Amino acid sequence: MDPIRNPYAPGAGQRPPELAGRDEQLGAFDVVIERVSAGRPERSLVLTGLRGVGKTVLLNALRSAAVRKKWGTGKLEARPDQGLRRPLSSALHQAVRELGHRDADSVDHVLGVIRSFAQRDAGVGARLKDQWHPGIDAPAVKGRADSGDIEIDLVELFTDVGGLAADQGRGVGVFIDEMQDLGADDVSALCAACHELSQSGLPLIVVGAGLPHLPAVLSASKSYSERLFRYQRIDRLSREAADRALSAPAEDEGAAYTAEALEVMYAATGGYPYFIQAYGKAVWDLAPESPITADDVAVAAPEAESELAVGFFGSRFERATPGERDYLRAMADVAVDLGDVDDVPTADVAASLGKKPQSLSPARDSLLKKGLIYSGERGRIAFTVPHFGRYLREQAI
Fold first, then answer.
1. What are the two backbone dihedrals, phi and then psi, of residue 156, each rounded to the nearest 5 degrees?
2. How many structural domains are present in the chain?
3. Of 18, 80, 103, 160, whose CB has the highest number of CB atoms within 10 Å?
């Protein structure tokens, strides 16, 4: 098969040639856009799931849908070592530009509020190099979104930006990836701002994406967050959707798979979108001709697994210290002992290592911060990456 015409795209956040299995989420978001634009109440949206299920791809697709409706949009990626003010200000600056409001004075006022919100992060009397310079010519608006209390400031900022969108009869979408990495104060402020927007009816919504424990993070911040957001769990693809993700791009290039090949591919990938793209690319490059057969998949599987071992699993495993790696391996062993479950009790992991649970708290907490594991409920932990336990067990052989 011609590698130049290989249609598959295994990359972080890279849109696959066929966005299969997400029609329900895309359709539901179209309804949200229309309702918000019409001034009807609608909740903000949170996407959750393991790494490799396509959360970022779907987040980008939802943003594209908003852009097609002439909404103002901005996107940011949360980081544990960064506050919310500056990245959010950049995202809202872009959203205001996309709205294209005709009243220059109104636009300058909102841009000035964005600037004051961001510059408050530098503190009073900050040096010039520490101040935020986003390309906004409008002067900062004193006394608006600059109190220093992130919750008060964010409510005021969203209110002004939402009002600008309402003037246009359109909306604003703020898209936040890796939302679980926001600081506790920023999460609380974001929930409060969304709560205020839901009561005022202003056309601004937040669309977040994060790991499975994100709802617990939000709930710990504000009890009403369970009613504030619409939660959608993004999971592996069904067999039908996985087959379409492979077959549709191949058909566009005049190629096909046998039924047996598709069956073997689903068994190998588990329906996870990233794995589908990785296997699809390897199989295409090594298959001699169309249709692609189960034998072709068997020949290409080692190359696909090698690529995943280095780029998907290995890169994450290398971030762990030796003690943390022992903890991860123990998690993998305990999961098998319990019947290949997804999450395991922390007490069982400690027992497997022959240590007291308290002595392992530093390793566990560090792995949580690095995003390698998550805790869906108290006393239990799981890998954030699908098939990570299998990878660790294979490495130990």
1. -65, -40
2. 3
3. 160
| Statement to judge: residues 293 and 215 lie in one domain | no
CA-closest candidate to residue 56, choices 184, 169, 177: 177
Q: By residue range, what is the domain housing residue 243? A: 239-317
- Asked if 284 and 387 sit in the same domain, the reply is no
pLDDT per residue over 337-364, tens digit each? 999 898 999 999 999 999 999 999 999 9
What are the tokens at 94? 């872009």
Structure tokens that stand for 285 in this block: 């490059």
Q: Which SS3 state, helix, strand or coil, does residue 229 take?
A: strand
Binned at pLDDT 50, 70 and 90, residue 228 comes out as confident
Counting runs of H as helices and runs of E as strands, what totals does the chain give? 17, 8
Domain boundary pick from 268, 302, 317? 317
pLDDT at 9: 86
> 10 Å Cβ neighbour count for 338?
13
Q: Where are the alpha helices (DSSP H) in 176-321?
A: 184-200, 214-221, 225-228, 239-252, 259-269, 273-286, 294-308, 315-317
| Residue 59 near residue 161 (C-beta atoms within 8 A) | no
**Tens of pLDDT along 137-158?**
888 899 999 999 999 999 999 9
Answer yes or no: pTM beyond 0.85.
Answer: yes
